[in-house]
Batch of 2 targets.
Target 1
Amino acid sequence: MDVTPLASRRAAVDVLMACLDKGQPLDDALAGHRGFTALDPRDRAFVRLLLATTVRHLGEIEGVLSGLITKPLEGANAVGRQVLRLGAAQLMFLGTPPHAAVDTSVRLVEDAGLHHLKGLVNAVLRRISRDGDALLVDRDPARLNTPRWLWESWIHAYGEDTTRAIASAHLQEAPLDITVRRDADHWAGQLEAEKLPTGTLRRKGGGHIAELPGFAEGTWWVQDAAAALPARLLGDVTDKRVADLCAAPGGKTMQLCAAGAQVTAVDISARRMTRLGENLARAGLSANLVTADASKWMPEEKFDAILLDAPCSGTGTLRRHPDIAWLKDEEDVARLTVTQDRLLMRALDMLKPGGTLVYAVCSLQEDEGIERINGVLVRNPQVKRVRVTPAEVPGLEDAITPRGDLRTLPFMWADRGGLDGFYVARLTA
Ligand SMILES: C[S@@+](CC[C@H](N)C(=O)[O-])C[C@H]1O[C@@H](n2cnc3c(N)ncnc32)[C@H](O)[C@@H]1O
């Protein structure tokens, strides 16, 4: 089997093509690539880092490459474009020795039968290895690495300074966050993690998750500190009938089960529901699992509380999924808002009078957050907002909006490694 560094880079080229040229999410393209899954764990980690770095810095890389290439590499030459992007990422951001980055890139275009591009790839990457720092001077990474539609939507929602802070936070990789079922202090020691004010454990070193103590027994699961907040905002759920709508892969279902609720978890995706079932089984937790479209499904009995973690653009998770910035656009957001409205209306139908509904999206787009909730409140006078209180989100008091919703942003807790961008609103009817 070919296990030379070239095999890793070959997998990276294929996956980058699948992602940026064909629109497949990076994680899906990686999971579906045989060459990648056959690599040893160290090489897989390298490929992941190389791809994430290339996509995270795509705007800067393109800025440099466009100054060095006169004719765009398209059609049959498109592979050359991805090879150059990956080569540039290695030289500009990963500190790969120039001979390794340049030679393997030349071999990659040769392998692809693009012999006529060998000279170009060699010359462009040698120029970057020689003058890379100078080529980056006076560039604006936050702006360059953010597509225009996102930048403008954030300027409109948050203003220039906050937009710049959001985009700057996206240049950093996100830390590994963990939710533990109990004994957070004990597990902070076991996992060499910091306990954040909201109770999430944050591990500095990352590491192979499945090999860390407590994972196999389901003592904890991976969940961003912001993603752990919506379920908590349902308050004490002990023995309550709780629906977790759009539940898979089940991070929030596990929180609710662990908190003593009788949970019905609903998700439209059978494949993701299987994962949810496996996650629950690992933790020794159980819930009523329903594979259905939650905007059409109706339970026999209404619920005391509902968590609606609606499908969304995911622009609050760009630190973990930088590809989202380049794969999604305003039309995707507009389509999602229709689904979000339908899900919200059905969730209200399923709620007992006086019950609590928490709506959450891991998106920075106002269309998917406050605008959806404002629409619900205008159309349904019986629905009221229940303000999030500072005591419920210790250390994140600034994330409470003037109206009493929660709006986390990626640069919050910057000194601790940041946070995913979530919008959360709590309603009662
Ligand atoms: C943000 S993810 C949920 C994450 C999950 N709550 C967790 O904490 O692990 C959104 C989920 O919505 C599901 N989904 C999308 N449209 C749906 C619908 N109409 N009904 C039910 N589930 C839906 C997707 O399959 C996906 O699993």
Target 2
Amino acid sequence: MRTTPDKQSVFSHVFSGLEDKKGMSDEPGKGSSDNVQVAVRCRPLSSGEKEAGHSVVVSVDVEQGEVVLTPPTSAGSHRRGEQARTFVFDSVFGPESQQLDIYNETARPIVDSVLEGYNGTIFAYGQTGTGKTFTMQGEKEPPEKRGIIPNSFAHIFGHIASCQGETQFLVRVSYLELYNEEVSDLLSKAVRKRLEVHVRPDVGVTVRDLSCFVVKNADEMEKLMTIGDRNRHFAVTDMNEHSSRSHVVFSVTVERSDVGPDGEPHVRMGKLNLVDLAGSERQSKTGAEGERLKESMKINLSLMMLGNVISQLVDGKSKHIPYRNSKLTLLLQDSLGGNSKTVMIANIGPASYNWDETLNTLRYANRAKNIQNKARINEDPKEAMLREFQKEIEELKRQLEEGSGGEEGEGEEGQRGKRKKRRREDNAGISPRSAAKVRVQLERERAELLKKTGLAEGERDSTRRELERKEEELAKAQEQHAEMERKLKDLSSKVIVGGVNLLEKAETQQRLLEQSARELEKRKKKEAKLTRKLQRKEAERVDMEEKYATLQDEAAAKKTRLKEVWREVQRTREELSNQRADFEQERQAMEETVRELSREVRLHQLVIDAYVPDQYQQLIHSHSTWNDDTGEWHLVGPFINVIITHYDIISVAWHTLETMSRDLSHHLMITRNQNGTPEWHTSPTTLGRSEFTLCLRGHSSADVSCIVT
Ligand SMILES: Nc1ncnc2c1ncn2[C@@H]1O[C@H](COP(=O)(O)OP(=O)(O)OP(=O)(O)O)[C@@H](O)[C@H]1O
């Protein structure tokens, strides 16, 4: 199931394809501008919030797509008496909303586009504990409680199963985690290995060495998701018993091959990125300390960078969008302002004590509405695997046919026949039928050999050896044949065609999804009918009004209109002043983060100054280079980097000119001299030419010295 893990691309740029089953898109490669779609989901009050007596400050108008945030009434709240805030979004969902409705309204159109060959991203954003993971993953049972990710599996394989004709599909998945600004592979055995993110002009953002798995049905996908989830970083915080401490991206790549009007197969490739972000949080509310605090700061910082990117994209003034300021924005580069159809689901809580955070999330989401993406259907992308698989299958079939196709030619002793047989033995092995014939022939030759009495001993031996050699060759050829058949079966099973059940256990899910999609369709039709009726009534009313209007009426109407305009001006003024106040608050929050960060930087500097002598700090400075691709500092050598994490613990890395890093800690020995001072030594045998001595003298860390010899 696993494919070559190297150079797997995440959020790849080159996506192309066709619009309908038969033909290619009229203008391959051309995209249309689409705004990022934004949905808001408000979860119900939790039992803890009810017990604590928190009031509800969020109301949702599904028809109008409106969310209203009313200021808290509790005496202690610093926001008491403020203006209510109203926001309008593409869709909004209240506390009673169902997982299936969320899927059908927000995710279904994106997944449909991915099946046509577009990139799609669905990401959940919001304060910690507001239901991002619930929305993206949901609960395992009952099926109605499943989230967007498992529903998309049922949708994808339900669609493939319903496809008729010659369309072939290849589906593969990968699952990555971004924890403390480091990317790792949740499906790898070396799950904590740090991976590098690169931006390649031809392919877009790629994660080197990220493994990907070809899947044949919805259940295999689900198993992989469960494996990855087990490796994810979670923790208990005051705000959430099962809080995600990392951002994760589950990617599904769907490649499809259709025969175009030119009679040739064409491949389209769509990639679906399902992103569950870690929640923004306040230290005072989550009770974070130590490691949790560090995680929390990294989470907040990356989300702040994401907000910054969103603002700059919307602002449109700056040509340079600071994607490289964090790994999160780098990974989301194509999804925000790039080649992708994107939906953002902003999760909020309804309780009064979260007023500030909820307002922040709504403001964030409101800004994101204006991001313009340029998704395109590309055709025949370079990194498609389906065509490679198809070619390999064809080649294997051809070779196997050659291996068994020469039966009529058996017995022909001409040179051509011999060449063909040799090639068959070399490449394709031999089919069981041909092998049986050859075996009969060999048996016959053996019997004849036994019958011959007048042969010299030497001649008999050489004939016997020849027979044995032929038998060995036959066995080898049969083995090759069986191996090729196995390979062919394996490859063919990975390339999926429609018309078969690919859902197994996910069948109920697919049924529920379809049923809910039908209900949604019915609801929409009913709504459209009502809207038309309302419009007719409104037109009738306007007609009547026009008929009976007098000058006096006109004057009254104008007066009313004037009043309305005046009210509008007042409202806008208030909104402007609210926005200024909000902006000020946001600026203060940013300043606080900057202060926290500078405190951390100072602490690091203190540790460095205390433990790393000046000459080594200068050495590090002079050997450090900034890599624009990875957004990181790299050390170039040869050079020994000494990091002291504890008085008695030293780790040493040797950096060669190629920036390869080797941890040398295990080559170090500690001894104490006659004064009792600890000294570190390296083992000369293991270090060879790059031998060096490292000493730690006295208790003062400033005495650490490191000499390369
Ligand atoms: N719409 C909802 N209906 C019912 N329960 C919900 C809903 N949304 C969230 N919950 C519950 O709220 C709790 C917190 O949800 P969840 O873990 O999904 O939050 P989160 O935003 O992912 O938090 P974090 O950022 O800390 O990971 C869970 O117990 C979840 O079951």
